[in-house]
Each structure stands twice: as structure tokens, then as C-alpha cells.
Amino acid sequence: MLFNVRRRASGLVFALLVGGCAGDGASVPASKPASLTAALTLDKPAAVAAAIDVRANGCGPRVGLGSGTVIDGGDIVTAAHVVAGSTSVEVIDGNGARAPAEIVLFDPDLDLAVLRPASAIGVPLTIRSMEARQNEVGVLVRIREREGVMEIEQIDVRVIREANIATTDIYLDRKVVRDGFEIDSSVDTGDSGAMVVLPGGGAGVVWARSNRVDGHAWAIDLPAGVIDGTALTAELAPVDVGQCVAD
Fold it and tell me: For every one of its 247 residues, what pLDDT tens digit does the chain have, with 9 covering 90 and above?
């Protein structure tokens, strides 16, 4: 899969050839006003309370695993490829509470999905109003159920740079561009859909890890319509979730 990583400020393009995940490129100088930086804090307990384990059924003998985050209104954001082709989805929070969920937004170009649980689960996380900036540090939360016990792990994250990534949709059918950022973090299998939480709140959703640079991964910026709810209907409206994504 070919990724063209553009520096937002100058438009300089870096062409990267990688196999199925994300690649690496040059860092982009970016800074935040000191007064704004000082005013923001990293709320790790809020990140844990909003983190969700996503289980998707319908694509083969095994259950598809991914991560998600509860946002304002109680909906859950995750990566589209986690739930693509699924026939049912279950979400589990860090306390072990479970709920079936319907997919109410599915965007294979952006690799983003929004789930609506049948009952309230987790605690909504504040989504910050600014994009990620170079060298900001934060966390993503990994939740896994193992033999009936919920295991919660906080993974350190550092923003490497902002980026506009020219790639393809999750089915490799169309060329698309995703606005987001590259991170330095030990992202692993099942972390797709996890929220990168920076000072001030959630900043973006993880959709791929690098297969060229160990410990690097990619996240997308959350669209404004998802943050403010205008992209979603008030009533439950399940959507077409397409076909399963090949491993």
C-alpha cells in the first residue's frame, strides 16, 4: 500500500511503500502557545473510564478484537476495519460491564466507525478542540478480557508529527487522504480504534501501526461532525458495514 505523507505547512510530499499498515516519514515542526500548553492537563483516569474493548462477530471462526472510546452522548468511536462485515458487536468496559452495540456510522475511507450501545457503558471522554501537535505526550488505554478478568494497561504515547496521509480505503479500492498524526507508542494487535489521549482530552483514533519502524503508528483526527454529534442521528439507525477485511 502506498502512503504519501504530506507536511501540512509546506505541502512537501514523502512517498512511502509499505505492506498493509503505515509507514514513516519526516517530522514536522509544530508548537503550541506556552499559555495554552500550561492550561491543559492529562487526565489518565478519564482515559481509563472511557476505554472500551470491542468484539465483532461475523468474519470467520474467531472474534474480531479492537478498541473504542466512549464520547459525549454515550456513543463509542472505533476503527471501521474492526467492525467491517460484522453481524454483531459487543462492547465491554474496564469494570466488565457488557452491552450489544449497533454500528451507526461506518466510514471505510476514513477508517472510522461509531457504535451505539444498547445500554450506557463507560464514562464519556472529553474530546479536545485542537489537533495533536509534535512532541505532545499522552496515553492510550488497552482493555482486554482474559479468563473473565478485565486487564487495563495504559500505553505511553508521543506525537511525532501532524500528517495528511494519502492512502486507500480499508478495502484497497479507492485512493483517500486521512488527516491525522504519527505517534511513537507500542501499539499492538487489537489496539486499532483506541483513542490517543493528550492534555485536554481525546485527540485521535489509532488505525494502523508501522511495519517499517518499530513502535510507530498512525491516528486520524476525529471529524467535527462526530465530535459535536451532527454526523449522527438521534434515533438508532444501523448502517451497512460492508464486507469483511482480509487479514
Answer: 334 444 343 332 222 222 233 333 333 334 444 444 545 789 999 999 999 999 999 998 878 899 999 999 999 999 999 999 999 999 999 999 999 999 999 999 999 999 999 999 999 999 998 999 999 999 999 998 888 889 999 999 999 999 998 889 999 999 999 999 999 999 998 999 999 999 999 999 999 987 778 899 999 999 999 998 888 876 667 789 999 997 6
Q: Evaluate whether 12 touches 27 at the Cβ level (below 8 Å).
A: no
Contact 169, 109 (CB under 8 A): yes
* DSSP single-letter state for residue 85: T
Give the integer Cα–Cα distance in Å for 202 and 159.
13
Q: Which amino acid is at 138?
A: G
Handedness of CA 221, 16, 136, 70 (dihedral sign): positive
Compute CA distances 191 → 153, 214, 230, whole Å: 11, 15, 27
Alpha carbon 130 to its chain centroid, in Å, reads 16
